[in-house]
Design goal:
The chain is 34% helix and 28% strand. It is α/β, with parallel strands linked by helices. Strand 2, helix 3 and strand 3 form a beta-alpha-beta unit.
Amino acid sequence: MAAEEIRRLGEVPAANVGDALRRMTVMDGGIRLVTERATLLGNALTVDVRSGDNLAIHRALDEALPGDVLVVNGHGDMTRALIGDLIGEIMVNAGVTGAVVDGAVRDVRALSEMGVTVYARAITPAGPFKDGPGAIGVPVAVGGVVVAAGDVLAGDADGVVVIPRHRVQEVVDAVGGIVEKEEALRQRILAARSTAVAR
């Protein structure tokens, strides 16, 4: 699929992308935006780590491609930050556009200043261990959704939606109609309000 078609998924609300997937691959509300930049779109670079340990994240970034999104199953652990400003610098250098972490992060002000988009379950100043083990490129569970390497992630201030690779074209084809239908309904609501005020 052409990159410009995929970019369409980043130009509409994440909620509309989720609607196109019948709301089945939307991450739970515990995965929240923690940086100022509120747009996310890219291919999943998946990492499974031991709770509180980010060695595999460092290794994954050695394999990162521009446009990737780091997707980390930190097993919901909120006691140790798996990503901070130093990993943020590596992400920027590699062209990684953002990260989604089912766990904790830190240095969120610095990450915001770098322009990366980061979602996480928690923020803590406590740093991680670097002992391993971990796995890269395997399916991971993040925010209650299974993410496979190469799936497309779309996010905004509301949260993150996972578009399975084999469904990207389906979602691209459907999302325009969903946006148009919502806009038509919005216009009807506004027209009804104007009529009521006029009375």
